[in-house]
Amino acid sequence: MFGLFKTDPQKKLQKQYEQKLEQAMLAARNGDMRANASLTEEAEALREEIEKLKDA
Question: Pfam families from the xrefs (predicted)?
């Protein structure tokens, strides 16, 4: 019953991952390749965490 209100950490990470990718895309469109690289790296770190949760 109380598990009903728990958030799924995988969904939270997936949402953060998608936001980082969108920010990276916008940075690339604006010509800021350093920000694009940084945001893409952060997104990949989140993707790795998501994969770990899937495997566990």
Answer: DUF6435
